[in-house]
Amino acid sequence: MEINSLLILVPITLLAYTIKGLTGFGPALLVVPFFTMVAGVKYALPASAAFDALAGLILLLTVYKQISWKFCLPLMIAMGAGSFLGARAVFMVSPNLIRIFIGIFIFLFGGYLLIGSRNTKSGKKMIRGEENRRLMPGAIIAGFLGGISGGLVGISGPILVIYLKYYFSKDFFRTQLIAIFLVENIVRLLIYFKGGLLEFQETNFLIACIPALLIGLWIGHKFHLRISEMHFNRIVSVILILVSAKIILF
Q: Which residue from 150, 140, 138 is spatially nearest to 184, judged by alpha carbons?
């Protein structure tokens, strides 16, 4: 990769991990498509996993006291299993097929966020942090499918987000996602490295993006309580739709 590529990847990393700091999920939705366009999918997937694992460890230090392990552990196991299968399958699927799947998936999730933000009501009832047993079977299935998606295309959040977001308050939801996605990303990262998906010389560009990652996490964590979910969803949805169009059409 050239220096011009780095000039693109650094600001994308900053924006992506500002989103991670704000919501607890979402950086792969920017990291994977842009890194794919610049360097190819075989670089984008392990880069996303490495960044997310580092970011997850940092954020975990700030929220570990609020994590409900009784709620998170079943989802971690489900996502870990799904991630293993998805990451193994990436060696048997065409990179072009993965790229198209990424674009379609991002477009659908962007549309979901845009429609959802328009329908948001301040008085909407939500479960405020209780571990509702009735939600667990569906949550485990969503976690498993999200893990497969994450292992295959580097995007694990949307399936679980869509299922759980309605039921939980923003703060509880963000905290649990930090723990859940940390385990899933570590599993993916180990499999990618074992499979030789990331060349050693390319790690210099990962290191060069780390300062942007750290600054983005700080910004997002600092202001996650100051931005409304409605406005945040509208901004992210527009970005995702534009990115998905770029990936699919070009």
A: 150
Q: Which residues contact 236 (CB under 8 A, 6 or more apart)?
A: 19, 26, 29, 110, 113
Q: Could you list the residue range(s) of the whole structural domain that residue 26 is in?
A: 3-249
Angle at CA of residue 110, ends 150 and 241, nearest 5°: 105
Neighbours of 112 (CB within 10 A): 17
pLDDT digits (tens, 9 = 90+) for 154-169: 667 777 877 777 677 7
Number of domains in the chain: 1
DSSP state of 227: S
Q: Are 9 and 35 in contact (CB under 8 A)?
A: yes
CA quadruple 172, 174, 180, 182: dihedral sign: negative
Asked if 79 and 184 touch (Cβ cutoff 8 Å), the reply is yes
User: How far, in Å, CA of 147 to CA of 156, rounded?
Assistant: 6
Task: Report d(CA 80, CA 126) in Å as an integer.
Answer: 27
Residue reference for tokens 């998905």: 244
The reported pTM is 0.73
Angle at 247 between CA 43 and CA 109, to 5 degrees: 100
36-77 tens-digit pLDDT: 888 777 778 888 888 999 999 999 998 888 888 888 888 888
CB-based contact 41:242 (threshold 8 Å): no
Alpha helices in 68-200 (DSSP H): 69-89, 95-118, 136-153, 157-164, 170-194
